[in-house]
Amino acid sequence: MPTSYYLVISAMLFTIGVLGVLVRRNAIIIFMCVEMMLNAANLAFVAAARDLKLMSGQVFVFFVMTVAAAEVAVGLAIIVALFRNRATIDVDEVNLLKY
Amino acid sequence: MADTLIFGVAAFLIIASAMMVVASRHPIHSALFLVLSFLGLAVIFFQLNAPFLAAVQVIVYAGAIMVLFLFVIMLLGEDKPLPGESRLGIQLPLGILFALLLAAQIGYMLIRQPAGRTVVARPPDVQLVHAAGEKAQYADFGSVKALGNELYTQYLFAFEATSIVLLVAMVGVVVLAKRRL
After folding, report:
1. Is the entire prediction scored with pTM above 0.90?
2. Which end of chain A is more exposed for a tag (fewer CB within 10 A), N or C?
3. Are A39 and B41 within 8 A, CB to CB?
């Protein structure tokens, strides 16, 4: 399969992730959409690694996955702390920093 | 032929379940569709000569990370759609508009043919390595051995730094999750 097909899938996945972050208000679902965007980037990395015959692309994906795991742990802890304080995870309700 | 079929099925799975993640009202449905999407990505990784990353995708992403998501969803008791989710107003059409705009931009970048099509030059040391052991390196491209070779030689420092990242994340989570220290 040509590399461009994989890049198109990656672009579509990234766009769907952006759409999810823009239109959903549930913090957990927004977080899942961020994960989806990270995965789209991973797919582009792996496709480019095969295209250029360089293993570095796959190593970068490995690092992205590690950072994503750390990010999920911290983010979900923030969401739990938020729910404990405000009894909601709707991001429109959490607007103290806005004013 | 089989390659194309596998790619088509996996691509459909990825895109359709990604759309369902955004569309479903229920957070648990979203999480399960995201698992499906990640499994499709693992299939694509296999196709792209990355068996180790495919395995890690299933074990770490579809396994550990999504279990963490489901655990938090259950813990918070968000087992019903949030009452406030429907009052989006102008944000919904605007969000779709900007997402389509982004899709158009990425699409333009993908199909754009530069006037003098330039190939990105590789760093000279990489070219040297390739010239020396081209056959050997290409033969096992994507294998766990090749990945480990790269990871523990050229990227050793980054690999060690990653452990600090994980440690900091762990300490941060403990601090955040404790009611009072």
Report:
1. no
2. C
3. yes
